User: What shape does this take?
Amino acid sequence: MPVPRRFDRRPPERDQTRINDRIRVPEVRLIGEDGNQIGVVKTSEALSYAQQRDLDLVEVAPEARPPVVRVLDYSKYKYELAQKQKAARKHQQQITIREIKFRPKIAQNDYDTKKGHVARFLKGKDKVKITIMFRGREVTHPERGTALLSRLSEELSEIAIVEQMPIQDGRNMTMMLGPSKSVLAGGEKDRTDESTQNGAGAAETQTPAASETQTPAASETPAAPQPAAAPQPAAAPLAPKEEPPAPAAEAPAAQTPPPAVPEKQPAGASSDASR
Assistant: This one.
């Protein structure tokens, strides 16, 4: 577990390259700024030589006797050294070793699944270590493990090569597979295709810009005068539209008088009449 920075009491890492006053030996072999060797001189003389040219005195070979120093710009030297190390790391190919374990009595479905994993690792340019695990008395039949590994290598012969033949190691039998040349060449071809497509894409992005710069120039050119069009005769005025006659008003319907209601007589009058 890394120590937190606030609890780390160690001094910060210091550049171990000795320059200028940090060179303590009495004499050194001096190389000028142009790369030519001047010879063995005293350290004080070499330091004054570098200071006259406004450069640094850098020890490039401390193991030599006497040590070799060179006159140069140390900041520029460190930058160029860092760029070289970065370029070296970029061109390095990191190899990853995967491991897949089998059993001598593996079922067909499990075998197909693990074989697919092996093929996927190989297509990813990784090495694969195949391990056959024996249990109990299975170790007395190593031929079953050898047959299984041979079958796997034959089925993957298009994308894999056997880098290490089957080896019995105790209760395990191992075999190493690596990606074939066709897989490695295919990866390089894909990278070149990607770089070509990126270059084509950059060219396409530059094409519209060129057309845009040319468009205003074309628009600035005056257009040729066109002949005037012949006058057309005036159109005759349209006659006003006749409105349809309004419908006749309906006659009001005759009103019928309400039926007459007989008047009621008082009760006394009816009794007098009956007498």
